[in-house]
Amino acid sequence: MAVGGRSATPEVIWARPERAGRGPRPAYSRADIAAAAVRIADADGLDAVSMRRVAAEIGCGTMSLYNYVPRKEDLYELMVDAVSAEYDLSGEPSGDWRAEMIALGRRARALMHRHPWLPGLMSPVYGFSPNVLRYLEYCLDCLEGLDAPPGTKLELVAMVNGMVTTYVTHELATAERARSLPWSQEQEDATRIAYLGRELATGKYPRMARAFAEGAGPVDPDGAFERMLERVVNSFT
């Protein structure tokens, strides 16, 4: 039994026909609904995405929206699929699987910065939509030259995506915290570095002192990202 278009049993939104074989053409497409939800999330964050607000954005009633998207989780899945279409998968892989995976990691980072809400939805639950499946198929095509079972190749893709998601989540959280500070980020950094310097000077943390001495200087987020990404990819050699 369904209530407001919502099934009482598990279903996948992609297995549900977008329109019935007969009857009038739906007033809205899934692409329209996904685009509206993405606009809201890009502007105001994922918490701002609600069935009521998406319905208002496209100009329909909230209960009518449930006829197109039975659950909010389905709406999230539409959103992930919509932005996954931004990956350019038109070219043929170069044959250098390491370079290809590093390039895909860079593209994933850029995608998450364009849509800061995306890391919060990076879950296998939303991982099998049409555009995501095309992305995974492309990744496996890029990995043709890697002598490993298909399952191991998928693990590499998951490791790269997991590393990128974690890194971008940290970047976004750091930027958000900086915006909320009543002083400048430079003042905050200077105060914390001075405290750390005093603690390391006590001699209680010799290994940490050596590590920071070798890595003295401003943090380079792009350089750190590249090094981490290369280590993940090269771990499969």
From TrEMBL:
Q: Which domain of life is it from?
A: Bacteria
Q: Which InterPro entries match?
A: Homeodomain-like_sf, HTH-type_TetR-like_transc_reg, HTH_TetR, Repressor_TetR_C, Tet_transcr_reg_TetR-rel_C_sf
Pfam families per UniProt = TetR_C_1 (PF02909), TetR_N (PF00440)
User: Which Gene Ontology BP terms does the record give?
Assistant: negative regulation of DNA-templated transcription
The entry's DNA-binding region = 50-69
Instruction: Describe the location of the HTH tetR-type domain by residue ranges.
Output: 27-87
Q: Offer an example of a GO molecular function term for this protein.
A: DNA-binding transcription factor activity
Q: Respond yes or no to whether keyword Signal is given for this record.
A: no
Give UniProt keywords alphabetically. Answer: DNA-binding, Transcription, Transcription regulation
Gene3D superfamilies recorded: Homeodomain-like (1.10.10.60), Tetracycline Repressor, domain 2 (1.10.357.10)
Signal sequence segment: none
Q: What protein name is recorded for this chain?
A: TetR family transcriptional regulator
